[in-house]
């Protein structure tokens, strides 16, 4: 780590984050057998192009537009946007930590300590929203400090990042709410109300967020009801277990700091205390609430906080380390390389089936698309089915079909993957391929779910053999065909 406390070291920050992104994009794209189900959701939401979705605001789907409209491989694009976002977020962590401490070695420490966490690599891949928070949250805090201490014009970038992050996942509202409280109760922040640009920033944030609010009103607030459906009241220890599984790198980092002669505490500089409040106040509220409300997704909620807690941790060092941090920094950087190597070995060696997980769905989709073309000789435009397995046609079918599941608010819960504009005329003209329930052959498959919405169509059937993975037991499934009009 050459010259870490000199300005020349700044260029190595860019080299690190760019190299990190390229390495993880390539490793994931070439070694991960299939993309996660969240990819199906994000692509489908992007196809519908609405100001919201059944689970998230609109930005998750909009990010997928380049892949949808430019024909980019969904698999490659999924890893590309995740690790480009992570790289941008890591740079924000470095910038924020440097702003809080004025020391480049501590900024490096904040960024590299995240190598101890899976939040910035393999743990982030399955989510279509968490990577957006890791991308923006550190920058939100950084732009907040620049707006308060340097120039109110920085509020515009704060509003842009905060608005996009809010439209990635509603939990960003926790940070925005904390900042709002600071504008009321902290004199230095309250002075922002004297500057016209501050109100322009407020207008920008609302311009980004309000379309989703109106969409929610028109959609029975389905996204909030989905979140509520995942939570049951009752005291539990799952939240504590999740917190330990997410924030353990802070414990390791604390050991390193103390072993180097440093100490941690509540920081004296107001800037450090304010960013601590912005993150820790909602984090304590979330921890307390989930301790009495059992939600299986609490780990997912907490993971983005880990990324932004790294610079807060560095900003909370009250006694600076007396020993140089060169060796710990080299160790943390080397550990990041080891994690990448470990991931690559596990995937390429197919340890515990990791390198072949769910890979059979690609073969199944290719078989279905081939049969469609042999039957009708036309592009496959629509797909339907009895469970979510048919939705993978969206990702892996070359024709990139859309589902025939219509939007509905039955039981106040819309379908997760849907087609807002589908009509009988469209299906009649273009036809559709259907996929039955897992492991049911055509003799037992009536496509009841499809017939519930489209009882007017005749369905022809063909059996197909499906293996979810090469070593899995072969099972018979059923393809259904709604023939297109000639």
From TrEMBL:
Residue span, Glycosyltransferase RgtA/B/C/D-like domain: 73-215
Record key words, sorted: Membrane, Transmembrane, Transmembrane helix
Membrane-crossing residue ranges in chain numbering: 12-31, 77-94, 131-149, 155-185, 197-218, 238-258, 270-290, 302-321, 328-346
Protein name: Glycosyltransferase family 39 protein
Species the sequence originates in: Providencia manganoxydans
